[in-house]
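Long-time lurker. I teach an intro course on protein structure, and each term I like to show students one example going from raw sequence to a predicted 3D structure in token notation. This year I'd like something fresh instead of my usual example. Would anyone be willing to generate the tokens for the chain below so I can use it in lecture? Attribution to the forum is fine with me.
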Amino acid sequence: MAPVCWFAGLTTLDVVHRAAAPPGRDRKITASRQDVAAGGPAANAAVTVAALGALAFPLVRGRGAGALEAPVGAGSTAVAGAAGVLAGFRTVARHPHLRRIFGARVLVVLGNHGVTTYQLYILADHVGMPLTQAARVSALLVPAHLVAVVLGGVVVGRMADRVPAKHRLTAAAAAAVAVAALVPVVSPSLVAVVVFATVGGLAHGALLTVQTAETFDALPDLRTAGRELGVVGVATTGTQAVAPLFAVALLQVGSGYVGLFVALAVLAGSAAVLSARAPGSPERPRTPASP
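-- Reply from a regular --
Happy to contribute to a lecture. Here you go:
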């Protein structure tokens, strides 16, 4: 079962100006791009932990009022918050590109966490290791998988900044997860499980990172960026909560642990096909860069 983490703190909107080089002393330069994204210590920590495979629940509250945040009366805060969440889901549902991103993430996370939930028993029953040895190996595979997720996100994430068609990277990462899931099916050995944990972890981290960048590019309105990014995040945290139930259902019908890997391969392959479709160019209001 994935660990559960709670984060309490403030959330903010970070405004990032990109430029080819830092300005000289007493000089002004023109930014080539301006990005707005959710930020704040609690929100950033929750996103990081969710990417590493835990269930992250941020208990955050915005602060301040300005062009990006309309002031809300104290008596209507809960109602306004619920309305904002529903509006975010409606925005994702209305835009085909955001729907594909949301659906692809649900498919990959559902299959991946279904497998990782039963990693100990996969080593014991599928590979045939003694339970005590399987426990020791599993304790090593968990951090190895997390390191692979982080490395995949960092390496491919930097590449994604230079690739306009990010959906192709997302599709390739999902396809890599599908191929890695088939390795333990073909060879029920410890080496095969290690290959899945490392290669699959690299691909999974790359997918989550590139999808986040792809989501930002697909947002129809930067003024509600944090809201829609949060909705897409539900595709990770919400699916993590139901993935063990999905895995139990597969085991109950007699598919065995091979069925978990095959299900992941099918789900990740479907996510690759879903992500490979060329998205339309979003039309959204942007704040011009300051001279």
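Some talking points for your students: DSSP finds nine helices and three strands in the chain. The longest strand covers residues 4-18.
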